Amino acid sequence: MTSRGPRGGRAARRVAALSALLLAAGTALVSVPQSAAAAARLDNPYVGAKPYVNPDWSAKAAAEPGGSAVSNQPTFVWMDRIAAISGTTGARSLKSHLDTALTQGANLVQLVIYDLPGRDCAALASNGELGPDELPRYQSDYIDPIAGILDDPAYANLRIVTLIEPDSLPNIVTNAGGTAGSTPQCATMKQNGNYEKGVGYALHKLGAIPNVYNYIDAAHHGWLGWDSNLVPAAQEFKKAATSSGATVNDVAGFIVNTANNSATVEPYLKVTDTVNGQTVRQSKWVDWNQYVDEQSYAQGLRSTLVAQGFDPGIGMLIDTARNGWGGAARPTGPSTATSVDAYVDGSRIDRRIHAGNWCNQSGAGLGERPTAAPAAGIDAYVWAKPPGESDGASQPEPNDEGKGFDRMCDPTYTGNGRNGNNLTGALPNSPLAGHWFSAQFRQLLANAYPAVSGGGGGGGDTQAPTVPAGLTVTGTTASSVSLSWTAATDNTAVTGYDVYRGATKVGTATGVSYTDSGLTASTAYTYQVRARDAAGNVSAASAAVTATTKAGGGTTPGACTAKWTANSWNTGFTADVTLTNTSTTAVKNWKASFTLPAGQTVTSVWNAVITPSSGAVTASGVDFNKDLTAGGSASFGFQGTHGGTYAKPTSVTVNGASCTLS
Fold this sequence. Notes:
The chain is an alpha/beta fold. The protein is 21% helix and 22% strand. It is globular and about 65 Å long.
């Protein structure tokens, strides 16, 4: 694992993170000096955190019918212009936000850094106050003052999460020339390099503050999820993260779906689905994308970023503020349609007209509530875009905020190349970007999924269950750890338990036992458990226990297939591989071995780790796909170079068993 310089990598901080977590949970261990607690650098800043609730947003939400049910949720504070630092009408200053966080007893504050020169070159509604060449002003009048405030010792015990410049770097990847969605403004920003220089400067200045955690915006699967975009995006992020004095050590992670509506997980639609022999990737909605939801995209992008040189411990955030898609139109199961387009349209919970639609979407609902460590590689679900804040005006609105009129916010507009020339799906009568949009908030509340307690009305139960006690390891194998604990209590009822391996939630249980499987032999794992109730209240974490799996290797499939699909050009190629366990026995920790023909070299990988990069290689599954259930499949892919003529391997084995290659 690479180092993060003097602040250390994520793994190096696990002991400090555990101490901070136990202290946050109220566990009395030893007296920790205040300066030592302030210096602790956490693997995941969200674990054990009490996030700040922005009173400015909370008051607006609570004033809406039923809004008090969610007005206590933590949201990001948007620093979207220089004036926001000192405060604007109806919004407190940055320093006041931090002071209020201390008053609340919070220990985590979330900020959006959003004022680049020539900001948001492809969406006029989000244009900013600085011209394309005003990089010096961005540095001296915007980033430097923010850094000066955040570096105040008074805030040293706050974990400060920064979301760095939404949409900027993704625009350079896809909208700066050569595509239907390109704009002259984006071409200018690509040519002058001020997006990369500005992001690099922000990372460098803010990353020097020990308690700041920088997360770079990485768009969403419907923007960068194609094979042709994913690796170039990771390369662009690396370029920015090594500009203006920054290094990859200044990056804690990345965030996807910022201010967007893509589903976190599509429960009834998988990218590997087929209909009458046609892959769903051929449908108009998926359009050959590699992903259909944000969680799989975030996990796949994470692997690609690590391959580009980012710390293997980076974590991902997913903005779930507006991607719930509840209500009567939500599917309840996979479609039974026999055409690929009808199947996809009938199965997807994302009800937008087109995945390129982004402005004030009709039918959207609140998504998953902010949650720490909900899945492998995911640091948290967050509400980055505060629900009820408009994406842009549906008609021209004179203003002094530098925000233009984008017809993607006009419900009568018939679209452009970025949304397949479809209607925008935008709500009518919307105000300027960032301004309160009551109709949007009420729709989000009504269509929330999970539903808001009481159907959108009332404050509901706010008392968390007690901390589970007596967490014990009851057994281990080479690939599993079994746990049990004493039941927690609650003022209403405990409905389940969340089980954490380190900082990652690995499963849930309705009873007081759980077996974590798919583990690596001869490896130590640390566990904690949290109780939750029907209202979504979650207890503090239990005391931690550590277990070491027994010696042994992965299991071997009785039979398997390997489907190999490749696209090649000049001296380059991409390969997509789907492994299927066709036996009746589950396979743990799969490793696919094959020999690349002479002249072929792997340059980047997703959903796996491949070593070495040429010759006889082995692809190993990653956290979220390393096991093959009986009849189950796992997919991975890679990009590479060849000597002029592409050929696929002649054979593939999985854990030593020969697979049928097609």
